[in-house]
Amino acid sequence: MMRDSARKVLEGIREEFKLSAADMNKMIRDFRREMDRGLRGRKSSLKMLPSYVTKPTGNEKGAFLAIDLGGTNLRVAEVELKGAGKEIAYRSKSFILKDKLISGSSGKFFDAIAEHLRRFIGRRDIGAGIPMKLGFTFSFPVRQDSLRSGRLICWTKGFSVKGVKGKDVVKLLEEALKRKGLGGIRVSALMNDTVGTLAARSYSDSSCEVGVVIGTGTNACYYDKRLGTIINIEWGNFNRMKRALYDRLLDENSGNPGEQLLEKSVSGMYLGEIVRLIICDLASRGYLFRRFSSTALIKKNVLKAEDISRMEEPGEKGLANADKVLRRYGMMNSTIGERSLVRQLCRIVSRRAARISSAGIIAVLKKIDPVFSRSHTVAIDGSVFEKHPNFAKEMRSGIKDVLGVRSEKVKIVLSKNGSALGAGVAAAISQSHSL
């Protein structure tokens, strides 16, 4: 059983991480203001970058190639669209980009991507045959000049490839394609993963105007009807939120203090680290693991988002998973009460992450449709949303807490593989516009 003193400390942490409906409404107002500032070119924590990708009509047809670079897991794909908003045919293959590539030279990095595409294509003579269009999902901050060009603003997610910052990533990829004998392939659309997620879902669902990714990182986009393009919000950098002591500790010890504050509260890259900081603090104060002797949990970033998801499985399964996770990090003799407390810490942190995401989505929807005069679909991709046992449910709960009956007009759906599918859809959109 949990000791009374530990229970009292847990309640204090719960209160510190609590995001009430009133807190969410304040965040929504601040988020809207930051959106407006960004759109007007004023100083804002939200970049509000035009993607030059518009919504599909659902009538686009044809076969297109796609490259999805969202992290160290590179995906190459072929996407076939049949028109009339029908289901998209899709085949893909994933490759792991090694550490030496993501910290090496520009030439070797893009050559490796082109080589993986060449292997995926196989024997087909695309290099010398009919030109084929490719959509390129590049999920790092870029400032786009057009649909098929964009300069890297900065690397994130542990990437540090030399000679890319400030350069046009489309040009760098096409040069590598030529070096690999794939000069017949033309990059016709550049986007990030949220834009791809929105494009993929809206191909068959015209009510979808918002795309979100909640995985290793997090971001969102929406279709701005007035501007005629999808706007990449780069919401991970939003900085006007209620923050806990452990958020500040994480931020101070990160590689980019003061930046990406929303992402540091929501994304899979950081959820485990927040929980680890709380566990180590409670252990050092004698509220957890009196036999605490693990050096593993003292190491930064060792606790992962998947660990949090496993420990939050319901009932006995979650308790058993908590025991396995803690044993893996050196806690060989935890009590049921200690495992229960750790599970509750995970729930507190992930619930807040879900409600922050909900507040961001509501802010974006209010930008599109202030009085919720129509129904809206929000397409979401990413491992945290997909695999965490409670995340989607908590997001829906947060939306209902703020919107009440109007929440019935908001549907959040998993758009699996949206970033790769959307790259193919965007390539198709570019073709239809050029006809």
Structural account:
- The chain has a six-stranded mixed β-sheet with strand order 1-11-10-9-12-13, with helices on both faces.
- It has helices at residues 4-17, 21-39, 99-102, 106-121, 169-179, 193-202, 245-252, 263-266, 268-284, 305-311, 315-328, 336-368, 383-387, 391-403, 418-434; strands spanning 49-50, 61-69, 73-82, 89-96, 132-138, 142-146, 149-152, 185-191, 208-214, 218-224, 229-232, 376-381, 410-414.
- It folds into two domains: 1-49 and 205-416, Hexokinase, domain 1 (3-Layer(aba) Sandwich), CATH 3.40.367.20; 52-191, Nucleotidyltransferase, domain 5.
- The chain is 44% helix and 19% strand.
- The chain is globular and about 70 Å long.
- A hairpin with a 3-residue loop joins strand 9 and strand 10.
- The longest helix has 33 residues, at 336-368.
- With 435 residues, it is α/β, with parallel strands linked by helices.
- Helix 2 crosses helix 12, helix 6 (193-202) crosses helix 15 (418-434) and helix 12 (336-368) crosses helix 14 (391-403).
How much of the polypeptide forms β-strand, as a percent range? 15-25%
- Give the total of beta strands: 13
Biggest sheet, spatial arrangement of strands: 1-11-10-9-12-13
Rg, Cα atoms, Å = 22 Å
Looking at the structure, the CATH topology of the largest domain is: Hexokinase, domain 1
> Which class do the helix and strand fractions yield?
alpha/beta
- Count of the separate structural domains: 2
- Estimate percent helicity: 40-55%
What is the overall shape?
globular
CATH class of the largest domain: Alpha Beta
Main pleated sheet: 6 strands, mixed
Write the CATH architecture name of the largest domain.
3-Layer(aba) Sandwich
Order of helices and strands: HHEEEEHHEEEHEHEEEHHHHHHEHHEH
Could you name the ranges where pLDDT drops below 50 across 5 or more consecutive residues? Answer: none
Count helical runs. 15
